[in-house]
Please model this.
Amino acid sequence: MSAVFSANLAKQLLELTPKLIRFPLAKVPFSLKAKVLSQLLAQLLAPQAEDGELDFLADKWVAIRVEDLQLYFEVSFNGRWQVRELTDAQVTFSAKSAELLLVAAAKEDPDTLFFQRKLSIEGDTELGLEVKNLLLSIEFASLPAPIRLSVEKLADAIVRLQLEAKPTVILAKSPA
Model:
């Protein structure tokens, strides 16, 4: 009974937490979200910007849809990050927040999520692959400590909850 209760609680936490975050997030003006996102991207991808690795994003828009948070936006890089509401992106990445966080923490491979249908990539396939490869090239250990530790702790919690939420199978020993 305890294992079943624990699994149900873990499953409910995985489903309920994004809903709890979604409500206050919806109250934040998009202009403030855009400012925070552009500053975060600038900080996270500064080495790639300096090395010219982001040049392929010039005049191209990548949409991000965090489905369970109902957070939708597009980004582009023309020497600085631009963030806008969804309009007409060349490629769209869609997933739930937990999956995106696991990818960010390098605890889950985007290809695996794609084939499990937990990550959707629609539109310009070549641009989508370039974005995916860019994300995979980020040295997680080089991220600023507060961001790295926060993402790491959240990802570890999600992994534990996902393991707890899986039903356990008890195999009976067959008589000898």
Summary: The mean pLDDT is 86. Strands lie at 62-66, 71-77, 81-84, 91-95, 119-123. The chain is about 55% helix and 15% strand.
